[in-house]
Amino acid sequence: MRLATFVAFLAISTTASPVEKRADAFGIDISSHQGSNIKWSTLKSHGISFAYVKATEGRNYVNPYFKNHYDGAKKAGLLHGPFHFARPSASSGSAQASYFISHGGSWSADGHTLPGALDLEGGCAGLTKSAMVSWIKSFSSQYHSSEKRYPVLYITTNWWKSCTGNSAAFGSSHPLWLASWASSMGPLPAGWRSAAIWQYSKETGSTPGDQDRVSGGSAALKKLALGH
């Protein structure tokens, strides 16, 4: 990600519409691709109030910049949360949840830590729809047993339909992080009436990195952190 471009974009996007800025909380999600030199205080000054940081993938990868990213976001006063990139074909959901928790994925009821998120994308991993639902339930059950919170589920509506058969089994308990790179969210997956987080822009060329927003501003963001 080219940080100078990112900051310039934020300066425009977060000041062009004061009403929109008040109505939503803006955030980013990052991984090792962004490197270690992220100016967190600058991002905060340009309207960023939360960040999700990739912690793990499968059961054999830890983001080498995770601590740097996570501590940086925390020190700057941003709400922060970890996410796990799922590899459903590699090992069980419960095993990956345990790996995630052991390598930065835990949650704290401190009002600043967002619940861990499960990043589901990249095809159906050769699983049937029912097997994918079972895998997600396995991950979720293990995470909830340890952290007393259900993980946020990061998905696109198309992925959810293709890989779970549009299951409605998670909407009442799991916050939705919807990826929809358009001017509006579009249709939601079955079971959810709203999205807790909307990833509305993804890094492409000179476009800034992944950008997210929470409708309802800081109050809704705090509610997500506290789980009520």
TrEMBL record:
Keyword Hydrolase annotated: yes
Keywords: Hydrolase
Top-level division of the source organism's lineage: Eukaryota
Entry keyword Hydrolase: yes
Protein name: Glycoside hydrolase family 25 protein
